[in-house]
């Protein structure tokens, strides 16, 4: 059952064109507009890449394919960073406007675009407990103000045959 959750999340978060939403999500030095500063906790290691993805705050669009969202003129932002060797690990996502969005963070440990249930990690805004399906948009929401807004995401990794959760808090 957990495989269904992560297969759905992975399908929606793996872009067919990796650049969609990246330019719009870039934060710039000295910028003071609506940005989300995400502190990522509980990384299994510092291998690969972290992808922070911002979605509209509704179940229909949350974890939807980036091509579909961008084609429909809906919000989609992605930032990709290499995890730094020391804490804290942070990533910044520029939002189109202050408001409420849904947030996903993927730790692609091999640095590839895909998502592997066996090795990669995933976290969401508001840090919902993961179950057998993808979380509802409301469980992954973050509210971004008109200036840089901090939040924390705790990563989850498969920890057993059917268990999925943070390695440690």
Walk me through what this model shows:
- This protein has 169 residues and is an alpha+beta fold.
- The protein has one domain (2-165).
- Helix content is 13%, strand content 32%.
- It is built from 3 helices and 10 strands; from the N terminus they run H-H-E-E-H-E-E-E-E-E-E-E-E.
- The strands form 3 sheets. Strands 2, 3, 5, 6 and 7 form a 5-stranded antiparallel beta sheet that branches. Strands 4-1-8 form a 3-stranded mixed beta sheet, with no helix packed on it.
- The longest helix is centred in the first third of the chain and has 12 residues, at 2-13.
- The radius of gyration is 15 Å and the shape is globular.
- The two termini are 24 Å apart.
- Mean pLDDT is 84; it is low at 1-17.
- InterPro entries: DUF2141 (IPR018673).
- Pfam families: DUF2141.
- This is DUF2141 domain-containing protein.
- It comes from Sphingomonas aurea.
């Amino acid at each position: 059952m957990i495989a269904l959750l992560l297969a759905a999340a992975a399908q929606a978060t793996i872009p067919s064109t990796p650049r969609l939403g990246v330019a719009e999500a870039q934060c710039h030095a000295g910028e003071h507009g609506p940005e989300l500063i995400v502190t990522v906790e509980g990384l299994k290691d510092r291998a690969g890449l972290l992808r922070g993805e911002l979605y509209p705050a509704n179940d229909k669009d949350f974890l939807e394919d980036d091509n579909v969202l961008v084609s429909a003129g809906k919000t989609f932002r992605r930032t990709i960073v290499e995890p730094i060797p020391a804490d804290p690990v942070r990533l910044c996502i520029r939002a189109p406007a202050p408001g409420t969005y849904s947030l996903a963070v993927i730790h692609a440990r091999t640095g590839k675009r895909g998502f592997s249930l066996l090795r990669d990690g995933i976290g969401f805004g508001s840090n919902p407990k993961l179950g057998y399906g993808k979380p509802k948009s409301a469980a992954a929401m973050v509210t971004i103000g008109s200036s840089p807004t901090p939040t924390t995401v705790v990563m989850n990794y498969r920890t057993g045959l059917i268990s999925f959760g943070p390695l440690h808090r």
